[in-house]
Write a structure and sequence with these properties.
By secondary structure, the chain is α/β, with parallel strands linked by helices. The chain has 13 helices and 12 strands.
């Protein structure tokens, strides 16, 4: 029997982080000591209180049945309380919140919910690959919005083609940003809201890193902008803030019509997040200050160590106070891919080439801080020895 993939799947490029996993596996099979700085997967354990909440609820037979795709009321109330305490934003838990299997699922499914074949979707460049992949699967066309260091990686809304903007259905935005680590202020979100309203575009803000920051300047939410709930939603992930990448829990918050439509789609393709995991997330939201502050102290120390070593090596990097990444320029004479290949071949260190995130990522590479300090330093020492 001949098994043939759909044209949609055939046209799909290999997923970046799956490729990295394959490379690491191959190297380790050769007996080599590989250090990966390529994936943002926290090495810090999930806080004990969150684990205990899961353990208690996992033993309750009531939670062993199908959960609702729309989520538990107590989970949605915890999200609303968190948004009020953290961002001073009032959220209706009944109509403006829905749980997700991590924000990645929401980012992918929002395209199926609103994008028809041929519709335009505005996507930052460089950016998280799933924005473009979700668009492609839904049959939409990606229109890239350049993000450049000279503008602190803030999207220039005036640069977007007016004809494209009028045809666009969705617009993906992500601050604090992956991969660049850039942070925007409320002024950008206010301009973004006006732009979306003028062009009738649904804004999908990926807020995965707002609680990973260093210093007194806390990143704000897109929903802090006046009128933002009229034009879009925000995806919030527990993965990085609470070291829960393997738990697959997040939420979408914001415009009630968008939330309802996303829920309508989800009822047909999944059966909701395991209730015990939602209870664990409630514990995380209730004690977010305690849990996130401990993480941020660790990431701050690691970032300072990395940037000090990069200064000594002579590699330039973008100065930021947020995320679990360092966005750095490749040494002169290299492309993003050639430098990543060099350190992989000669140092057995994995870094992510900036070009994997889009055309405007060329000339850069990303370092993840999600590895113990001693291995992080060793990886950078190895890189230095290849130059």
């Amino acid at each position: 029997m001949k098994i043939e993939e759909s044209q949609r799947l055939k046209g799909l490029p290999p997923y970046l982080f799956a490729e990295i996993d394959t490379i690491i596996k191959e190297k380790k099979n050769q007996g080599l000591d590989v250090i990966s700085l390529g994936i943002g997967d926290p090495d810090i354990p999930t806080p004990k209180g969150i684990i205990e909440a899961l353990q208690i609820e996992a033993e309750n037979p009531v939670n062993h049945q199908y959960p609702s795709s729309y989520g538990m009321g107590s989970f949605k109330e915890a999200v609303a309380d968190f948004y009020m305490d953290r961002f001073c934003i009032k959220i209706d838990p009944d109509e403006e919140v829905i749980p997700l299997f991590g924000s990645k699922e929401g980012v992918a499914n929002i395209a199926y919910t609103f994008v028809d074949i041929g519709d335009h979707v505005l996507v930052p460049d460089p950016s998280y690959p799933v924005y473009s992949i979700g668009t492609m699967f839904a049959g939409g066309q990606t229109y890239s919005m350049p993000m450049e260091e000279k503008n602190d990686y803030i999207i220039d809304l005036e640069r977007i083609d007016k004809a494209v903007a009028l045809k666009a259905k969705l617009m993906h935005v992500n601050y604090p940003n992956n991969p660049t680590s850039a942070v925007c202020g409320i002024d950008f979100y206010e301009r973004l809201t006006e732009f979306a309203e003028k062009n009738n575009i649904i804004v999908c803000h990926d807020n995965a890193y707002s609680d990973t920051y260093f210093g007194d300047r806390r990143p704000v939410s897109f929903l802090n902008a006046d009128g933002s709930k009229e034009v879009g939603i925000e995806f919030y992930s527990l993965s990085k803030t609470f070291n829960m990448t393997g738990w697959r829990i997040g939420c979408a918050v914001g415009n009630r019509e968008v939330i309802a439509s996303l829920g309508k789609y989800k009822t047909n393709v999944d059966s909701g997040v395991f209730n015990a995991v939602q209870y664990a997330a409630i514990e995380a939201f209730k004690n977010y200050k305690k849990y996130s502050e401990k993480n941020n102290q660790i990431y701050k120390q690691r970032r300072e160590m990395v940037t000090e070593i990069l200064d000594n090596i002579g590699i330039d990097y973008y100065k930021s106070n947020a995320t679990i990444y360092v966005w750095a320029k490749v040494p002169e004479g290299h492309t993003s891919k050639s430098f990543a290949k060099l350190v992989l071949d000669e140092a057995n260190v994995v870094v992510t080439p900036g070009s994997a995130y889009g055309k405007f990522g060329e000339g850069y590479f990303r370092i993840s801080l999600t590895i113990v300090d001693s291995r992080l330093k060793e990886a950078l020492d190895r890189i230095n020895n290849t130059l």
